[in-house]
Amino acid sequence: MKSINDGKNFRVVTGSPRETKKLAQKIFQENKKELRNRCLIFALQGELGTGKTQLAKGLGRALGIKETIVSPSFTLIREYPFEVGGRRGIFYHLDAWRIETAEEWLALDVRGLIKPGNVVAIEWPEKGRETWDKIFDSLAVKVVWVNLEHQGKGERIISQPRRLGGPE
Known about the structure:
transferase activity, metal-binding, Rossmann fold, 168 residues, eight-stranded mixed beta sheet, 8 strands, metal ion binding, cytoplasm
C-alpha cells in the first residue's frame, strides 16, 4: 500500500484485496466516533471489479463481524449485526447496480436503515443519487465518499475526495 499526495484528495494505491480490506479498516477507524450520534454511510464508487466489495468486507472486519461479507448483487441488501465499543448496530451492505427508479430505492426502506450507530456501505451510489440525497439530507448521517479505480497489475487507486465531506 502506498499513499499518493496530490494536495486535494486522500489517495492510496493497494496491490491486493488484503490491502484494500486493511485500508477500509483504517478509513472506518478515522470515522467511527460518528457512530455515537449518526449513521455512518460509505458511498463506494467505481467500475466493475475495482474492489468495492473488498472494501465492504474490510468495513465488516473493522466492525468485528465474523460472518463472511458477500456481495448483495442479487438480494440488493444484506445485513450483519455488530458490536463495537459496547455499542450495537447493524452493518447494511447495499448494491444499487440494478436499482433504476426512486420507487425501487424507497421500496428498500432505506430511511429505516439510517439510525445512529448503524453503518451502511452502498456500492454504485450514483444510481438513484437524487433520491438518496433527499433521504439522507433530512437524517443524522455522515457520508464518506470512496472512489475506486483500476491502476493495472492488480493495483487499485482508492481515494476520498474532499476527505471530510462529499464529492467535489
